[in-house]
Amino acid sequence: MLDLRQFEALRAIARSRSTAAAARELGWSQPTVTHHLRGLARATGAPVVRSSSAGTVLTAAGALWLPHAEAILDRAARAQVEVASALQDRRRVCRLGVFPTAAARLLPAIVAAATDAGLRIDVTEAENESLWADFDALRLDAVITYQTEPRGRVGGDRLFEEHFGILLARTHPLADRELLTIAELRDETWIVGRDPDDAIDSMLHDFTRRAGYTPTEVQRSDDYRVVAAYVAAGLGVAFVPELALPVSPEDCRFVPLADDVPPRMVSLHTAPHLPAEIGEVLRAGLLQG
Fold it and tell me: 10: how many CB neighbours lie within 10 A of its CB?
C-alpha cells in the first residue's frame, strides 16, 4: 500500500542526493528513510533509488514517480489547510486559474456567485501553458483557458468563441467602419506585446506578411489597459481579442476584421476531485458574466 511517507522520502532524496541529508531534512533516522523507499520499491516492483560512492539518486522508476509524488504531497498539504479553513470560516476554497485577458470580464461575476454560495475563489492569472501545468499538478481545481486550433485539450465546458479585431481610438478616421481588413492598415502604427514570441502578435505578423507589409511597432505592453490607453491617445492601433477590450471603452472602438481570422474557443475545465456543486457555481457565474 502506498504511504505519503514513501513520497516524502523520495522527494527528499531527489533534492539532496543523500540518504543522510534526506533524513536530516525530514527529521527521521536513516533507517526510516530507507524503510519507506523500500516500501515504495515493493509497491512499484522495481528499485526507486540507486546508491553509490557519489551519492543516492533516483532510478528510472523513481524519476517516473517523482512528479506524482510532488503533486500528491502538495494536494495533501492543501487538503489540510483547506479543511482547517473551512471548519474555521465555513467556506470552501476553489483555486481557479484564468488567462489574463479573461480576468477583468469574467471574474467579477464568478466571484459574486461564489460569495453567494459560501465559496472563496483563490485566483491565479497566467498564460495557458502555466495554467495547464498547475492544473495537471493538482495545484489548480479549475481553469479557464483558450485554444485557437481544433486539436488540443478535449472535454471541459465550451463557453464561447472569442473573435479578434482592431482596437482604434474613437477619433480615428476608420473608427466608424463595421469591418476592416489588415491590408487597409498598412500605414498605421501598432501597439504590440513585449514578448517577441507573443502568440497574438505572431498572428498579426502572419496576416500583415500575407498583405505584403511589415507593421510599424511604436509601443509595447502586455497590459491591455495600457494598450487601450495608448490607442485612445492616438499613438497607434492594436490587434486584440474581444476579452481584451476595456470594460468602459468610451475612448476606443473595436472593429472586427473581414480577413479570415480564426476565433479562439474559451473553455472551463474542472478537475475530477472538484465537487460537482462547486463546478456548478463556477458555471453559473460564467453565465452571468
Answer: 26
Q: Cα–Cα distance between 110 and 65 in angstroms, integer?
A: 36
Please name the amino acid found at residue 165.
G
CA 214 vs CA 14, 172, 178, 282: distances in Å: 49, 21, 24, 42
The three cell numbers locating residue 164: 479578434
pTM of this prediction?
0.68
Give burial (CB, 10 Å; 0-12/13-18/19+) of 85. Answer: middle
Q: What is the pLDDT of residues 183-242, one digit of tens each?
A: 999 999 999 998 877 888 999 999 999 999 999 999 999 888 899 999 999 999 999 998
Q: What is the CATH number of the domain that holds 71?
A: 1.10.10.10
- Dist CA 17 CA 50 (whole Å): 10
Length of the chain measured in residues: 289
Task: Note whether residue 35 is domain-resident.
Answer: yes
SS3 state at 174: coil
